[in-house]
Amino acid sequence: MTWPVPKYQLLPAVYLLAFLVLPRQGCLVLMTLWMVLVAVGELLRRRRPEVGAWTARHGISEDLFWMTLGVWLALVVFAGQRILMVSIGFVALGNPVATWVGQKYGKRPWPNNPAKTYEGSAGFFVVSFLWSLAFVKPVVGVLACAAGAWMEAYPWPKPWRTSFVLPVFGTLALSIINIVLGRR
């Protein structure tokens, strides 16, 4: 069976689950240990050709490092659980859905990023918004998910990656929108 999205894009769902069931400190410890392991793996991937070849054969890209770093930084910097749940949901739910919808139904590419489609961005928005309703006011969810859909579709230059930008800047944007429009 072929996966409709890269396997590493499904890993944030595990992060989201850990954040749901563990206390904040336990989640931070676990994510810090995982971040160290992923960082060592990325260093080896870059420095050792045989490790790089193995990761390429198994479909492990450097996006795994950037996505894990983004989620870890969001957990370290931001304390609000509701806000973190929504922004990690951007990466755990919205990003894979955007990839799947874009590949399956995408017909109209974004002018500034032909690798992304309007349909994929709409899929991101709908799923992220439905998820956000459990944690923030609807108006906050609409604006934050629109910002997240824009971040997901934007052609970020290297070393930036969508999977890094979404949890870090998505949490920042969501925090600002939530402060301005009121907390629940």
Number of strands: 2
Q: Major sheet, described briefly?
A: 2 strands, antiparallel
- End-to-end C-alpha gap: 43 Å
Radius of gyration: 16 Å
Strand arrangement within the widest β-sheet reads 1-2
Q: Output the number of helix runs.
A: 8
SSE arrangement, N to C = HHHHHEEHHH
- Uncertain runs are none
Q: Averaged pLDDT, please?
A: 88
Coarse structural class = mainly alpha
Shape: globular
Helix content: over 70%
Q: Estimate what percentage of residues fall within beta strands.
A: under 5%
How many structural domains are formed by the residues?
1
Q: How are the SSEs ordered, and which strands pair?
A:
Layout (H helix, E strand, L loop, with lengths): L10 H11 L2 H24 L1 H9 L5 H15 L3 H25 L3 E2 L2 E5 H15 L5 H16 L8 H20 L3
Antiparallel strand pairs: 1-2
Characterization of this structure:
There is one protein chain. Helix 5 crosses helix 7. This protein is 73% helix and 4% strand. The protein has 8 helices and 2 strands, in the order αααααββααα. By secondary structure, it is mainly α. The chain has one domain.
Brief account:
With 184 residues, the protein is mainly α. 73% of the residues lie in helices and 4% in strands.
Keywords for this structure?
2 strands; two-stranded antiparallel ribbon; single chain
